[in-house]
Design brief:
The chain is an all-beta fold. The protein is built from 1 helix and 28 strands. It has one helix spanning 164-167; strands spanning 13-16, 21-27, 38-43, 47-52, 57-63, 69-75, 78-83, 87-94, 97-105, 115-119, 122-128, 134-140, 157-160, 170-176, 184-189, 193-198, 203-209, 215-222, 229-235, 239-246, 249-257, 263-268, 274-279, 284-288, 294-298, 305-310, 316-320, 324-328. A 4-stranded antiparallel β-sheet has the order 1-28-27-26, with no helix packed on it. A hairpin with a 2-residue loop joins strand 20 and strand 21. The longest helix has 4 residues, at 164-167. The radius of gyration is 19 Å and the shape is globular. The two termini are 31 Å apart. WD repeats lie at residues 298-333. It comes from Biomphalaria glabrata (Bloodfluke planorb). This is Guanine nucleotide-binding protein subunit beta-like protein 1. InterPro entries: WD40/YVTN_repeat-like_dom_sf, WD40_PAC1, WD40_repeat_CS, WD40_repeat_dom_sf, WD40_rpt. Keywords: Repeat, WD repeat.
């Protein structure tokens, strides 16, 4: 007799690699059809791969960094990569050629990502600095598809927390510039502190003790219509926390607990409906951003899910320490 439960979801695409997957990014400019989205993956050995969804094989690749890839992002048909070798690189990828069109230094041998937002037709790149607890923001000329180099517009802005000893290293950063008078930068610290900065003024707007231990993953989402900004954080424990910016203050909205401890990656879908959380237990959990209700558990991977990313057509990719990438068509409405 049927229990009435749906069978567990399965990935629609499985990709196998020889090195643990540490970062993922989709190119939104080529999402013209069901299998026409471009997927990039970054790996522990420093390689970045561009995948062909039709053949399910690498289309091209390059040894982008001398250390593990920390972060990937696609912007204006360019790929941005960050490695633990202390460099952020901007790439023009025209198969099979990979051309570096700009490099910016960042902290080496850490695991904190960088972040990019667009404000007043400028790209603001925020990177972790060698100085503990400091973030440096570079104001760049607007990137266009035909751009062949990166132009710095002004002296970098340095955000340095005075309480470095108690806060420790930057663990995650995320900038937001949609529907706000000045861009914000959210910084999650080793101490479990979550801070929201006025990025251009270099001033702290609000700060809270979000977790008892280090914040391991974070993502933010800004509502286009309402301007509401929400932030989701995960740590080494079982708690996933939702925060909201109200009158320039971070307020706690809800905490949910998962079965096993340890969260390594979070991504909010562009429409603000779904949160994907990669766990150390090899599972990817899906939640509703509005209610924080648990929606599904994806159980394909055999080791820690180190990165999750949504495509512009709402497909979800998960990358794991086991060297596999899975692509899912879940709640794609």
């Amino acid at each position: 007799m049927s229990s009435g439960r749906l069978p567990p979801p399965e990935p629609v695409i499985e990709l196998s690699t020889t090195s643990p997957v540490t970062s993922l990014a989709f190119s939104p400019h080529r999402a013209l059809g069901e299998y026409e989205v471009t997927l990039y993956s970054g790996h522990q050995d420093g390689k970045v791969i561009k995948w062909n969804w039709v053949t399910r094989r690498p289309e091209s690749s390059t040894m982008a960094h001398g250390e593990s890839i920390i972060w990937l992002m696609c912007v204006a048909e360019k790929l941005v990569s960050q490695g633990r070798d202390g460099v952020v690189k901007f790439w023009s990828v025209t198969d099979p050629e990979w051309t570096v069109i700009g490099e910016i230094p960042c902290a080496a041998l850490i695991f904190c990502n960088s972040s990019i937002c667009i404000f007043n037709n400028q790209h603001l790149l925020s990177v972790p600095s060698d100085s503990v607890g400091q973030v440096t923001t570079h104001c760049l000329e607007q990137l266009l598809p035909e751009s062949s180099h990166i132009v710095h517009l002004s002296t970098p802005i340095r955000l340095h927390h005075k309480d470095t000893k108690s806060h420790g290293m930057c663990m995650r950063i995320k900038s937001e510039a949609d529907k706000v008078p000045s861009p914000y930068l959210f910084v999650a610290y080793e101490s479990g502190t979550l801070t929201m900065w006025d990025l251009l003024r270099g001033e702290i707007l609000t700060e809270i003790s979000a977790h008892e231990e280090s914040i391991m993953c974070m993502d933010c989402w800004a509502g286009i219509d309402t301007g509401t900004i929400k932030c989701i954080t995960g740590s080494v424990d079982k708690q996933l926390k939702l925060w909201q910016v109200d009158n320039l203050l971070l307020t706690h909205k809800k905490t949910v607990k998962v079965l096993n401890p340890g969260m390594g990656s979070i991504s909010v879908r562009a429409d603000g409906k779904i949160i994907a959380v990669g766990g150390w237990d090899g599972r990817c959990r899906l939640f509703s951003l509005k209610s924080m209700k648990a929606l599904a558990v994806l159980t394909f991977h055999r080791s820690s899910v180190q990165c999750v990313a949504f495509a512009s057509n709402n497909y979800l990719a998960t990358g794991s320490k086991d060297g596999y990438i899975a692509v899912w068509n879940i709640y794609n409405t």
